[in-house]
Hints:
Blueprint: H1 9-22, H2 26-40, H3 66-85
Helix pairs in contact: 1-2
Amino acid sequence: MRTTVTLDPDIAARLQRLATQRGTSFKAAINATLRAGLEAGAPDSKPYQEVTHRLGVQPGVDLTKALRLAAELEDAETVRKLELRK
């Protein structure tokens, strides 16, 4: 396949040196470099596993309503700040 690619000057120079060292064409150096990069892919790693801890929630604290509690605390802080301005 024929295509046009714009290379940064430093990359073009490195590819030209590689082609010269290997005694191949510029095209062959580009193809070999791209092939090696694509075959390398992402390293195989273990799936991420979340570390959990017990929260020791106090009796009477319902965490299923945490967003409502956060909103109420934020509202209370806003009211406190507004009262200080008077």
